[in-house]
Amino acid sequence: MPALALDPVLCELARLKSRDMHEKNYFAHTSPTYGSASQMLKTFGYSFNAVGENIAHHATVEKSQAAFMSSPGHRRNILSASWTKVGIGVWTDSQGFVYVTQLFVR
Known about the structure:
Elements: E1 5-6, H1 8-23, H2 37-43, E2 51-58, H3 61-70, H4 72-79, E3 85-92, E4 98-105
Parallel strand pairs: 1-3
Antiparallel strand pairs: 2-4, 3-4
Helix pairs in contact: 3-4
């Protein structure tokens, strides 16, 4: 499969979601600030036909990625030929744990 294009705008939006989870003390696909991933992209004027989202909160980015790959749903998002672009955003909390958001679009 061809590599997904890393989109800097999606990366910034993913980072905003990761930061929001930390600052608002939640861990969910629906943000109290931005709503769902599709609502967030629409609010920021990002054009897309479909969106997928993976989120993780672990001690490291590497552990987050390992968790994604060991989960069938998250792995399916990462390896899907449906997506054309990806944005990855990381926010680190005061204890050094990371919030990771991956946004996939076509």
